[in-house]
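Minimal example, chain plus flavin-adenine dinucleotide.
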Amino acid sequence: MSEILVFIEHKDCLLNKISLEAIAAAQSIGKDLGLKVSAVLPCDKDCSLAQEIAGYGLEKVIVAKNEKLGTYTPDGYADAWEQVIKTINPTYIVMSHTYQVRDFAPKVAARLGREVVGDCIRYSASSGQLVLTRRIFLGKLDADVTLGGEAPYFITFQSGAFRGDNAEKGSAAVEAMDVSVGDLRMSPEPPFQEAKASVDLTKSEVIVAVGRGIKSQENLALAQQLADALGADLAASRPICDSEWLPIDRQIGSSGQTVAPKVYIALGISGAIQHIVGMKNSGTIVAINKDGEAPIFDIADYGIVGDLFEAVPVMIEEISKAKS
Ligand code: FAD
C-alpha cells in the first residue's frame, strides 16, 4: 500500500473545479509522505474529462466505469469506490468536502469499517504521521486529529483549504476499470436550482461582500457598482441575508458559503468569527470599516479605516480611470 487516491467530481464529464483543490491537497500529502497519487473518476463511458485530469501531476487517472454511473447516486458511487479501493489498496483517499462527498464517502468508509476525517482545513506531516486539523465549535477552536487503525484513511478538505491553481501539472496515464454496480435504490431528480440568477460564489475570482455597515437595501447599488467595475460577484454577511436584502446563496460564513476568491473586499463587515471562517482563505483581503478596532482588520491584507460611503465611490472612479 503506497498510494493516495483522489476523487474527481464531475457532472456529465464537466469538472467540478473544487476537485483541483483535492488534487493539490493529495499532491502535497504525497510529497510529504513519499506516496504516489492517482485520480478516480466514476463515469458511464470513456470520460472525456479523463484526459484533462491526466494533464496534472498524477500517477494514473482511473475511470471507474459502469453504465449506471452516468448520473450520481450514492449507491452507484459507493459500489464503484468500494471496488476501486479493494483493487488498488490505497493508504489515503482524499476528497473535497462537497455535498456529494458528504453523501457517499461515509457510506464507503462504513462498508470498509473505516471513518472519514471530514472538513479538514490543513494538515501537517511529521515522521510519516499525518495530523489533520478541523474547525470545531463554529470555528472558535481548531482540533488536531491523528489517524488510528488500519488504512485506508478517508480525508475530506474544506473548500479553500488548498488552492486549485496550485495543483501541479504533469502527465498521467488514463486507465479504465470496469466496476460492477448493484441495484440503485434511488433515481435522482433534476438538480435543485434555487433561483435562476443564483451564483456559485465558490467559483468567483473576486468578491465584493457587504455587511451591516451598508445600512439599507438601497445602498447595495453602490456595492454592486464596485462589483461591476471589478467584474466581481456580490456577497454578504448574515444580517444582510437575514433581512432578505440579498438571497441566502450570497451569504458567506459558517452557515453560508465557504469561498476562496483571489480578492475579497469586505465593506462594513465587522469580522465575526462566523463570517471569517467562510472567507479567510481568500488570496487578498481588503476591508473598509469605520471602526479601526474591527476584527476584520486582523486578517485583512489591506484596510481602509473610514466610511465606506466615502471610500467606495473613489474606488469606483479610480478603477474606471485605470480601465480607460
Ligand atoms: P456588524 O457586526 O453589525 O458589523 C457592521 C460593521 O460595519 C461594524 O464593524 C461597523 O464598524 C461597520 N460600519 C458601520 N457603518 C459603516 C460605514 N459607514 N463605513 C464603514 N464601516 C461601517 N454571520 C455571517 O456573516 N455569516 C454566517 O454564516 C453566520 N453564521 C452564524 C451562525 C450562528 C450560529 C451565529 C450565532 C451567528 C452567525 N453569524 C454569521 C452572525 C455573526 O455572528 C455576526 O453577527 C455577523 O457576521 C455580523 O455581520 P456584520 O459584520 O455585517 O454586522
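The first strand starts at residue 3 and ends at 7. Residues 18-33 form the longest helix (16 residues).
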